[in-house]
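Progress note, sequence design subtask.
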């Protein structure tokens, strides 16, 4: 969406306000007095919406001057994606038809399973060129993935479409629209409209024209002086039409001393964004696709001036994926301001992932959460009476799907600050809140969820449009000095630092952000149950359905796992959960674990009991890649239905403390809960000992469970219950495949480099006699190093993600990556010096012995990597055989060559050896890499 379109939308909203007051409503066919509110949804007033709020249901009436279908959508963002839609039309038999539909995207909305509970028709008709209907909509959704709440205390996005045809199909381009409507009497302080404000002036922040480079991503920065005065107040924002390549623009307040900024004033924009560091840290406002004008209600404003900040930095981000040449832009933002004191001064708090670069998300996932915590150490800096949040601007890029900001107070989550589902990059806006109070010591948790299903490589966080961001900008009052609050990982920006979360607090009075350790990252809290996040099966949409919801996944044909979270546990955030392990008796043992890897996971291992007729379930744990041992802290019970029957082992398990364990935790409301599994084929173990020794697994993997689909039913054994609703998970083994594939690619490339390419190149230079041998040798070794770079990149990513950087395998790999970088340089010097003096120099010995040690160490490190990855024994044996044979051959060639050299040296004292020296001289090389 372009700014030009937004400017037209803004004018349309202004025209709408005029049309609403002048259009007669006498054409409405129903009794308008039954409603409390009314708004026109289009500029000419021919689509009218009415409403009356209720405690459980809100009644809506909609009428359109059209003779076909009429649709009204409840949207979280103003986009069709995720909208909960009411559709009315005349059926083929002449009767009026009312449908509840859901829009999964920009496709035809599908008829919902629930046609009686979420929305229900009161009356409707179509006559004399008018279609209308009145219906009730449930205020709190039963299933947030297919329905939407009604924002009865704030503003609600409505979308609409109509036609002159009674076949529900794509609408005409002029027969649709969206409108942000305030339904209730909540205390909101801004409107998404360009309303006039008395006693105000205008100013424009204008970026000098730039030629947009033919590059996918460009950021430009220009400094601007704000209107003079000790204390002025921004009361309105007006985006101005600009280039279609404009991705977003941000205005930052500059709190640094003025003398550090004046050299930047009235200069050409600095578009060298990869090396430029913006000194201005206070967020003022942002435009992004979907945003229109904004005006504060009377008595509210954002202060600026010599008492606050006098300069502002305009950041413009251009997205040019087609690499267009010659495109120019002079971006601008118009503001309305006053020099009269307002009653309430508004500030903006930045939440989310302020450490924009360095983090990655796993590809191929339906939902990947990214969470940051604003800790109590920072919110303690707020005034004693706290602050009041009035709006939130949620910002992600194209993969963004859902976002929420939770408030945790005294160890318990209270009502969420803000949530948004079905985020759409083209429909961004500042979401109005009904004055949410935040207190000193509150903990704010910001979570963004991204869809990476279309990605095959790790998705980075970063500034380009193709990367991702996670921000929530909160407008609040009264203004205070805290500008930003989040967590950072020092190790992402400085490899010498540990990978451990620390709090970060950004205040306007400090030149640098404050970094500190906080217990907020490890302290559990009581999570608020998510009303409406109860989508276990289609039966839930039918009143009275009460069967337990069982989520089942079979990552392999004969190995299956099932899960149930009782409603009481889901509501309280802790308590019993139920899971089942099922596998043939051809397996010695099978294990299911909570976590992303064996280390620090909550492991449950099943094997046959001593008498061979039942199963033993052993809770286990480990902090490294060693055999897990019994965990006596686990509170588990083996339930009825467990045992061995018809050649299968089954364990039905109740776990009473699986929401937390000594090395981790799991939210019972998580929609992407991580699990791993493993097993070993072989003879039955037949033991009641919960700490019996087991052999290493021959297969392992991982998957994610959407716990909302496993929630439902009473607190009892669900695997024996009648009427249980079993749902097959579609996400089984997804994580395992991508993780395993990445690990296999890393191992394969590193093995090719150290077991094949490097030693082959060294052997070649010892035994062959070819023209240009040194260059063949050098090219081969450089190719091997390129392969190793690719392998190391994958390895570092996985080690950073899984906290393996401290393991010997990772340390050795990084050391080899650094040392081998210098080998071609040292080899070239060695080659030139040898040709000159016809004997080895210190460069020769440095190159030769570093290469020899590097190759042997690389082979050994491959074995350490297999051990770290808990690789199957077949892979370990195969690697050992090939590495052993190549290593033996390589060492034999070295010994042979050195003996030959020593023999030649004894005949031609002081030289490299007459035969070898002449051979190398004829080749024009002098052993470019004498490894």
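Output:
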């Amino acid at each position: 969406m372009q700014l030009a379109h937004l400017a037209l939308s803004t004018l349309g909203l202004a025209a709408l306000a005029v049309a609403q007051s002048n259009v007669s409503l006498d054409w409405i066919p129903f009794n308008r007095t039954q409603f409390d509110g009314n708004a026109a949804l289009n500029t000419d007033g021919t689509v009218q919406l009415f409403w009356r709020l209720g405690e459980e249901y809100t009644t809506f009436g909609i009428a359109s001057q059209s003779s076909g279908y009429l649709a009204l959508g409840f949207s979280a963002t103003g986009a069709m994606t995720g909208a909960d839609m009411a559709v009315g039309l005349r059926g083929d038999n002449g009767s009026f038809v009312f449908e509840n539909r859901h829009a999964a995207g920009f496709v035809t909305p599908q008829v919902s399973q629930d046609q009686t509970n979420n929305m229900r028709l009161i009356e409707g008709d179509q006559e004399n060129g008018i279609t209308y209907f009145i219906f009730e909509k449930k205020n709190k959704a039963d299933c947030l993935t297919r329905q939407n709440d009604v924002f009865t205390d704030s503003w609600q996005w409505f979308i609409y479409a109509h036609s002159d045809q009674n076949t529900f199909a794509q609408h005409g381009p002029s027969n649709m629209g969206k409108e942000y409507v305030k339904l209730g009497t909540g205390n909101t302080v801004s409107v998404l409209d360009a309303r006039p404000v008395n006693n105000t002036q205008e100013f424009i922040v204008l970026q000098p024209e730039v030629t947009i480079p033919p590059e996918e991503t460009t950021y430009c920065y220009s400094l601007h002086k704000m209107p003079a005065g000790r204390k002025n107040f921004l009361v309105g924002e007006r985006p101005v039409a600009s280039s279609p390549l404009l991705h977003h623009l941000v205005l930052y307040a500059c709190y640094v001393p003025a003398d550090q900024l004046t050299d930047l004033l009235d200069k050409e924009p600095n578009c060298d964004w990869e090396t430029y560091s913006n000194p201005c840290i206070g967020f003022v406002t942002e435009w992004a696709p979907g945003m229109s004008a904004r005006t504060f209600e009377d008595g509210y404003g954002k202060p600026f001036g010599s008492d606050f900040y006098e300069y502002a930095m305009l950041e413009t981000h251009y997205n040019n994926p087609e690499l267009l040449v010659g495109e120019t832009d002079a971006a601008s933002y118009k503001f309305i301001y006053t020099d009269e004191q307002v009653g309430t001064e508004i500030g903006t708090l930045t939440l989310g992932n302020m450490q924009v670069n360095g983090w990655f998300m796993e590809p191929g996932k339906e939902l990947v959460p990214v969470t940051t915590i604003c800790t109590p150490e920072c919110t303690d800096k707020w005034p004693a009476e706290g602050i009041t949040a009035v709006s939130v601007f949620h910002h992600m890029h194209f993969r963004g799907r859902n976002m929420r900001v939770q408030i945790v107070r005294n160890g318990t989550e209270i009502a969420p600050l803000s949530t948004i589902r079905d985020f759409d990059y083209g429909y961004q806006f500042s979401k109005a809140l009904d004055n949410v109070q935040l207190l000193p010591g509150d903990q704010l948790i910001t979570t963004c969820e991204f869809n990476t299903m279309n990605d095959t490589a790790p998705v980075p966080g970063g500034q380009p449009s193709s990367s991702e961001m996670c921000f929530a900008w909160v407008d609040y009052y009264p203004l205070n000095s805290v500008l930003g609050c989040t967590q950072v990982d020092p190790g992402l920006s400085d490899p010498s630092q540990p990978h451990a979360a620390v709090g970060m607090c950004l205040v306007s009075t400090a030149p640098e952000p404050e970094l500190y350790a906080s217990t907020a990252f490890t302290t559990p809290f009581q999570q608020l149950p998510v009303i409406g996040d109860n989508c276990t099966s289609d039966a839930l949409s039918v009143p009275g359905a009460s069967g337990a919801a069982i989520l089942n996944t079979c990552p392999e044909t004969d190995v299956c796992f099932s899960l149930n979270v009782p409603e009481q546990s889901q509501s309280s955030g802790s308590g019993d959960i139920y899971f089942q392990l099922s596998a043939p008796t051809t397996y010695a043992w099978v294990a299911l674990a909570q976590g992303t890897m064996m280390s620090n996971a909550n492991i449950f291992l099943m094997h046959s009991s001593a008498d061979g007729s039942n199963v033993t379930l052993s809770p286990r744990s480990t902090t490294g890649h060693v055999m897990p041992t019994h965990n006596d802290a686990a509170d588990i019970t083996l339930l009825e239905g467990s045992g061995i029957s018809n050649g299968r082992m089954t364990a039905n398990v109740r776990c009473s403390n699986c929401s937390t364990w000594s090395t981790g935790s799991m939210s019972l409301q998580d929609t992407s809960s991580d699990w791993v599994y493993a097993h070993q084929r072989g003879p039955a173990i037949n033991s009641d000992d919960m700490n019996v020794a087991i052999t290493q697994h021959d297969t392992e993997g991982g998957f994610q469970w959407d716990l909302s689909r496993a929630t439902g039913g009473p607190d009892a054994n669900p695997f024996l219950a009648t009427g249980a609703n079993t749902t097959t998970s579609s996400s089984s083994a997804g994580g395992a495949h991508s993780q395993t594939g990445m690990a296999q690619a890393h191992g394969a490339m590193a093995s090719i480099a150290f077991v094949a390419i490097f030693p082959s190149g060294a052997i070649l230079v010892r035994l062959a006699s070819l023209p240009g041998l040194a260059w063949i040798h050098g090219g081969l070794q450089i190719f091997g190093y390129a392969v190793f770079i690719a392998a190391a990149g994958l390895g570092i990513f996985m080690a950073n993600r899984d906290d393996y950087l401290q393991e010997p395998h990772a340390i050795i790999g990084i050391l080899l990556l650094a040392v081998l970088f210098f080998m071609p340089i040292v080899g070239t010097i060695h080659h030139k010096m040898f040709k000159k003096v016809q004997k080895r120099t210190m460069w020769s010995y440095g190159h030769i012995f570093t290469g020899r040690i590097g190759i042997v160490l690389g082979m050994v490190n491959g074995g350490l990597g297999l051990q770290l990855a808990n690789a199957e024994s077949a892979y370990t044996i195969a690697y050992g055989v090939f590495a052993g044979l190549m290593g033996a051959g390589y060492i034999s060639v070295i010994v042979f060559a050195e003996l030959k050299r020593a023999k030649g040296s004894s005949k031609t004292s002081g030289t490299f050896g007459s035969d070898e020296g002449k051979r190398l001289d004829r080749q024009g090389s002098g052993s470019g890499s004498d490894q």
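The chain has a mean pLDDT of 84. Work on this subtask will continue into the next period as scheduled.
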